[in-house]
């Protein structure tokens, strides 16, 4: 997924509102999603996250749709990659609170 090509971020109206992502390509074009809680499972090495549908022209675009879950994961992974590469985000260890160096595969 590429920002600006496959999805765009929608800036919130206020600082307290969350950011949304509009999917532009693929199976769910014009579907707008909003991410909730996000966590990295260190043991299993995968992301866990919640998301909701803000709007969609597709009645199949529901959080329980496994294909949409995969698309949402790809969007979220892209957002994380950009944030880490550009220095907008930091990864910290939950237990120690120490920053973890980001590595790119």
List keywords for this structure.
4-stranded antiparallel sheet; single chain; 1 helix; globular; alpha+beta; two-stranded antiparallel ribbon; 105 residues
Protein described:
The chain is an alpha+beta fold. Helices cover 19% and strands 30% of the residues. The strands form 2 sheets. It has a 4-stranded antiparallel β-sheet with strand order 1-2-3-4, covered by helices on one side. The radius of gyration is 15 Å and the shape is globular.
Low-confidence stretches: none
Strand order of the largest sheet: 1-2-3-4
Q: Report the C-alpha radius of gyration, rounded.
A: 15 Å
> Between the first and last Cα atoms, what is the distance in angstroms?
16 Å
Which band does the percent of strand residues land in? 25-35%
Q: How many strand segments?
A: 6
The biggest beta sheet reads:
4 strands, antiparallel
Number of structural units classed as domains = 1
- Total helices: the number is 1
* Basic shape: globular
- Tell me, rounded to a whole number, the average pLDDT: 86
The computed structural class is: alpha+beta
Could you state the order of secondary-structure elements as H and E? EEEEHEE
Portion in helices: 10-25%
């Amino acid at each position: 997924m590429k920002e600006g090509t496959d999805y765009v971020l929608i800036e919130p109206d206020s600082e307290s509102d969350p950011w949304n992502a509009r999917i532009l390509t693929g199976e769910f074009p014009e579907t707008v999603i909003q991410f909730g809680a996000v966590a990295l499972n260190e043991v299993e090495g995968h992301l866990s996250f919640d998301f909701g549908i803000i709007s969609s022209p597709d009645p199949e675009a529901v959080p329980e749709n496994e294909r949409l879950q995969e698309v949402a994961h790809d969007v979220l992974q892209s957002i994380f990659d950009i944030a880490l590469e550009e220095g907008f985000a930091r990864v910290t260890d939950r237990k120690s609170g120490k920053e973890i160096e980001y590595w790119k595969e």
